[in-house]
Design brief:
The protein is α/β, with parallel strands linked by helices. The protein contains 13 helices and seven strands. The protein has two domains: 199 residues, Vaccinia Virus protein VP39 (Rossmann fold, 3-Layer(aba) Sandwich), CATH 3.40.50.150; 82 residues, DNA polymerase, domain 1, CATH 1.10.150. Helix content is 42%, strand content 15%. A seven-stranded mixed sheet has the order 3-2-1-4-5-7-6, with helices on both faces. The longest helix is centred in the middle third of the chain and has 15 residues. It is globular, with a radius of gyration of 20 Å. The relative contact order is 0.14.
Amino acid sequence: MHAFDFHAPVLVEEVMRYLLGGDGLYLDGTAGGGGHAEALLKRCPGCRVLAVDRDPEALKAARERLAGFKDRVAFARMSFRDAPSHPRLRGEGLAGALLDLGVSSHQLDRRRRGFTFRRGAALDMRMDQESHGSAAEFLAGASRGELHRALRAGDAPRPGALAGRILQRRAARPTRTSDDLVAVLESVLGRRATHAEKARLFQALRMRVNDETAALEAGLPAIRDALRPGGALVVISYHSVEDRCVKRAFRDWSDPSRGLPRRLPVRDAELAPLGCVLTGRPVTAGAAEAEANPRARPARLRAWRRAA
């Protein structure tokens, strides 16, 4: 595996436009193959990067790609939600932070990683394959309620019927491969599943296995609080569940009065916004980038800046 084959970074110019705000320490909370971090370090000689990822294969690729930057980059194997507690951040606010959510091209393309619905792939889906609880293990042990909640939260098609059919199937044989799971989906639909329907099902299961929604909900405010005044947080999401979470957080931080009852006795100082949204609508890939890299098409970038 070559570092430059790991994952093609998306929306690089757009990320740099919103993220860069002067010298200092930046967090790349989902380093992948290091493409975004490389662009930042090249453009800003006074910038340093803490590159974080749960996937040891991603960190290996990032180390290779960023080897020339030496002491300007540090690496940590952890979830981005835990990154604000890293020793590198003690006594120093972040000049900016980037989260490029979802799954990388490398993870999708390696059948043994189990993220793909290509035929014959084992249902693994763990970002860190040394952690506990693969997708197959979750399907084998989850209750109907747990299955339903996970599938519904991840926007899988017909989550209630799917949960019931998974339980019926496992009474006779386990659901261990992509073929098994697609067969369950198609038995519920009563026809061949579309690419989008399969993607939504596998997405929902991957999100549950890696606790992605909880990580995002906890990580966003933790990273926000680690930003120095004027620091920007840029998030790229690839499906509506993530994008709604980011949009809601950025909106609430920018308008603390949202949701409060009228005439509530609150001092003006307590309603001061924490910062401002930089992207009124999500930024998407242009036609040239989408054609060159089809996986950039669903990308949605949102940015927020902490008050100075």
